[in-house]
Each structure stands twice: as structure tokens, then as C-alpha cells.
Amino acid sequence: MQTAPQTTDQDQPAVDMKDIVALCKRRGFIFGASDIYGGINGFWDYGPLGTELKNNLRDYWWKSMVTTPPIGPDGHPVQIVGLDSAIIQNPQVWVASGHVGGFSDPMVDCRETKKRYRADHLVILIPSDDTPWIATIEDDEDFLKARLKKVGRGKSLNDFTSKNLTEIDLAEYPKILAPDAKEKGTLTEPKEFNLLFETGIGASEADKTTAYLRGETAQGIFINFKNVVDSSRVKIPFGIAQVGKAFRNEVNPRNFIFRSREFEQMEMEWFCHPDEAQKWFSFWKDERKKFWESIGLTSDNILMRDHDADELVFYSQGTCDIEYKYPFTSPDFGELEGIANRGNYDLTQHQEHSKTKLEYLDPERNNEKYIPHVIEPAAGLTRGVLALLCEAYTPDPNRPSGVYLNFDPKMAPKKAAILPLTAKDGQPEIAEKLYLELREEFAVDLDIKQNIGKRYARQDEIGTPYCFTIDQQTSEDGMVTSRERNTMAQERVPLDKVADFLREKLK
RNA sequence: GCGGGUGUAGCUUAGUGGUAAAGCACCAGCCUUCCAAGCUGGCUAUGAGGGUUCGAUUCCCUUCACCCGCUCCA
Question: How far apart are CA A62 and CA A383, in angstroms?
């Protein structure tokens, strides 16, 4: 994620994240978890409307992946099946994936400057005499030169041997002059960060064995690759999709639900022949962008960003982030989804660690045996919810609520509200009848109390696209007033055509 | 994890070492009826824990949460 101070575009008033968080709490989208106990950092609870919104996004993703997957380059629909794997797996899974023991990055702090560095990013220049060892930041030539000029005592680069900090014994640390420090010996011992949540299996303390809550849903897919191939008549290329919770001990949860310790992912692993990986990588990049645009994220706020070579993890053959311009990153963008060409790294790792053959025998390629390559579109469901909320939040001084949520009707937690103009003259009865009819097909609200203005305002704030108002005339002509959220425009609709009306609008 | 800031009702604010106040919102009733009208009534708060004190929302300590910046985000 990139960060930058929040700025105000000329044509676009900056939306304050505070206001969005406040509305989410006030109207029941998202609450701080364990609220009444003073909260708990990095966790959030989804209220009645937040749950609806999250479910809508989740269901739409599932539909777009599993129920009605896209048309492939050959003009036929691609094949994707669903999965729901356990949150706790055999701990070996996380060893194989590299989450445990593998490449967690040790960090060192500087006691003097309070700065923190990745241990493997620090290069130490070791002189032949007993002058201080000079720590510099890897790959930063300018910094290195400037640093050498300042504290190098006239030596040139040739007078030093250089080593990575990770190769240096802790006993030598007192000799090291940290990159921004004046005194030597200020670097702390490297600190390990393990992002996985540990838990214990076994009811008795004595027999407890350590296990982990999953850090991503993807590994559950990889370890079921063979099961799915053997049971589902899928043929390469095909995908396995999964939605579910994931857990990471983030160093510093921030920015509302953007970085939390418990979050939800929507991941699909696309298995294909190595020769076709690049083709499918491009295909999924396009498809995933279309997905987010189809639920209302405007192109101005969406960015496709290909990772630079030096940004890629070692096994990745290409990664592209779909980024969204959140209010707290604006004018920069923050990650929403990552599409990665992972090669055959994951299946190879699991084949080695599990001693189970994960090769695919491809009858369409002369029974060629190979470990499939994987394209992974991995989206944050909860980050998607956040993007939808940010995108929808629309201040409007010209309406009583002062703000409305401009959700795409497909995503809106409530599709319509049924509002009798008054609580008498048989209007509530007509309203309830309409409500009972519509609720079979749509998430709708029936609200009878208080004056009509307040009720419109409330529906604006929760982003309900349509209100249907029953008035005195309804019992005479069988028509209700439809009121559209964004324009506040009204039109008369026959009672028995309201469902058709809604169905049409929700297409 | 570091530095700075903030915690009084759902929100915005008041106030005090001695009964915690108001507006808006919310709920109920009446009235009104197409965009938060009016009247009456009601609910709801000193983030948590400890200390000093006869008594702490106020003073002190700790902690938790949130915000900003840094760091980090395999």
C-alpha cells in the first residue's frame, strides 16, 4: 500500500474516513469488535446491514466465479468449482507454504533513531581496521555514497568488505553504526515476526499440539487439488474457488477494516498448463477488473498496477494488484485484489512436503504429466466491502440526511423500503401486503412510523435505491409512488407491477 | 513496535473534588402527511482497572481503544 497525506481534489470534496466509520456504526454496518469491553485492536463486527452488504458481495463473486463463470478465450465458459476447506489444517501445510519458519522477515530497531529496518535489507561495510562498521540500506547507491562520505573517514568503497546483516554474528553488533545513527551499537537483536495465529489442538493442556489459523484460504485449495481432480471430472484448465475467513497477526492494524487481523478472502486458484499460464494471467486480470467495475467502482478510483520485478516474491512470475483509491490512501491507491502468476510453486511445495504426487496427467496432451501452473486472483472480501462503502458515500447538503450511500442496487443491503404515508386509513395494511409479496424475492424494509421525510432520510443513509410510498390515492387507483434514491425523483407505479419494476432495476 | 494526540449519551458539546447539563438523534403517544415539522413523555454517558481522598468524571498511576505520523504488511 502506498500512503500519502490526504488531499482535496478540486472537483471532488475529500471524504473523511471518520464520517464513513461513524455512519457505519450509527446505521449498523460495522462495529468495533468487543465494543462493550473496550474493543480489541484489529477486529471488527459486521452489523445487520454490513452483513447483508458483505453477503451480497460474496454471493455476487461466487456467482461470477462458480455459478456463471466467464466465457474463456475459446468462446466457451471456463470451468470453476467451489470449495470450503477447514480453517485449521495440519501444521505442515504452513511449513510447506512458507508461512512458518520460511521467509518471515526479521526486523531490527535502532535504539537511537527509533527507526526500524528489515534485517535482510541492511548491508554492512566492514573495514580492515577497528573503525566502526557502517550499515547502509541495500540497493540505495546515493545513500551509500553519502553515508560513506560522512562517516567513512576518507575510505572508499574498496576499503571495505560488505556483508548482509543476516550473516553477521550478534556479538559483532556493538561495532555497527546504524544507517541513520550517530553512535555505534544501537541496533537491536533481529526480531522475528510470525504473522500466523497459533492455536492448540487437544482439550488437555498436556496433549496440546500447536496448530495455526489459516493465513490465507489459498492453501486449503492447493491441498485439495488432488481430491477435486479425482472427484469432480474437472479437466485442466480449471479453477477452484473459496470464500472464507483468514487470520494474520498484523504488526499494526490500521485504517478501519482495511488491515485487520481477522478478515475475509475470496480466492480462486486457476490451474493450467505451464505454456498457457501467461495467457490466463492476462485473461484473469481483465476479468477481475470488469468484476469490480460491474458493481459500481468507477474507473477513476480503480487502478491496475503490475509489480516491478524487484517487488515480486521469488517464485512469482508476475503479479498485478487491483488497487482502489480509498480516502485514507488518496491520492494514492491501496490494494483490493492481487492477481498472481504463481508458477507451480505451491503444488510443488506440497508435493515435496506431503510426499503425495500432485502431477496432472493430461490426456489432451498425449498423457503429458506435469505439475500445473497457477494463476491466483485473490480478493479481499472485507476490503471489497470497504471499497463499496467508500465509493457509495456521497455527501449531499441538499437533502435532509446530508449524505446518501450510492450503492449499485445489486450490492445495496436493502433493495427497497415500503412506506405508508400515514399510519392509518388502511395504508399500513396495503403496505404490509406489498412487503410480504416483495420479501419473497428481495431484501426489503417495511417502515410505518414517523413522518415520511425522516424515513426517506434513513433509507438514503443506508443506501436503499428505491422507496415505495402508499398514500390515500393508492386505495383508489392501485398505484404507489416510487422514489429513486440518487435523484429523489418520483413516479407512480401500479401495485401489482412493483416486483417487475424492482426486478428490472436490479438487472 | 516508536512518537504525538484523544476518550463525558448514538452524535455535537457543557460542567464540577460533593445529585452530571443541553441540543440533535433514537423510542412511545398525539397531531400532521411526499423529503429529518410540532407537542408530550421516555431511554441512554464520564473507556477499563487501581491509587490518593470522608467522597474522584475531575488529581496520580496503569491499561485498553481510537486518530495522526513513522515503521511494517511473508
Answer: 16
Residue A488 to residue A452: CA distance in whole angstroms: 13
| A479 closest-nt by C1' vs CA | B34
Is the CB atom of residue A369 positioned under 7 angstroms from any atom of strand B?
no
Minimal CA–CA distance to A338: which of A319, A310, A318, A315? Answer: A319
Exposure on the CB side of residue A202, measured as CA atoms within 13 A: 9
Contact A176, A163 (CB under 8 A): no
* Mean pLDDT split into 10-residue runs, chain A, 507 residues: 35 70 89 82 90 96 97 96 96 89 64 69 80 76 72 76 77 77 73 79 82 94 96 95 92 86 95 96 96 91 87 82 89 91 95 95 95 96 94 87 91 94 88 94 91 90 94 91 93 95 92
Å between CA of A367 and C1' of B34: 70
- Residue A113's nearest nucleotide, by CA–C1', is B2
**Residues of A from 189 to 218 whose C-beta is within 7 A of strand B: which are they?**
193, 195, 215-216
Q: Give the whole-angstrom CA distance, residue A234 versus residue A78.
A: 11
Q: Does residue A313 lie within 7 Å of nucleic acid chain B, judged by its CB?
A: yes
Domains located in chain A, CATH noted: 22-100+211-391 (3.30.930.10), 107-177 (no CATH), 401-505 (3.40.50.800)
- The confidence score (pLDDT) of residue A192 equals 66
Whether residue A26 contacts residue A46, with contact meaning beta carbons closer than 8 Å, is answered with no
What is the Cα–Cα distance from A483 to A469, expressed in whole angstroms? 8
Between CA A195 and C1' B51 the distance (Å) reads 38
A76 touches strand B (CB under 7 A): no
**What amino acid is encoded at A426 in this protein?**
G
pLDDT in the model for residue A204: 80
Q: List CB contacts of A349: < 8 A, sequence separation 6 or more.
A: A96, A97, A98
Which amino acid type is present at position A71?
Answer: I
Give the span between the Cα atoms of A184 and A174, in whole angstroms.
Answer: 6
Strand B nucleotides in reach of protein CB atoms, 7 A cut-off: 1-3, 7, 10-12, 25-29, 32-37, 47-48, 64-74
Q: Is the CB of A451 under 7 A from strand B?
A: yes
Please report which helix (H) or strand (E) contains residue A304, including its range: strand A302-306
Whether the CB-CB separation of A122 and A136 falls below 8 Å is answered with: yes
Angle at the Cα of A352 from the Cα atoms of A347 and A355, rounded to 5 degrees = 105
For the CA of A284 and the C1' of B66, the distance in angstroms is 38
Chain-centroid distance, C-alpha A232: 29
Mark out the alpha helices in A17-161 (DSSP H runs): 17-26, 48-62, 92-97, 141-151
Give the number of other Cβ atoms within 10 Å of residue A499's Cβ.
Answer: 16
Q: Judge contact between A64 and A177, C-beta under 8 A.
A: no
CA A501 to C1' B63, in angstroms, rounded, equals: 56
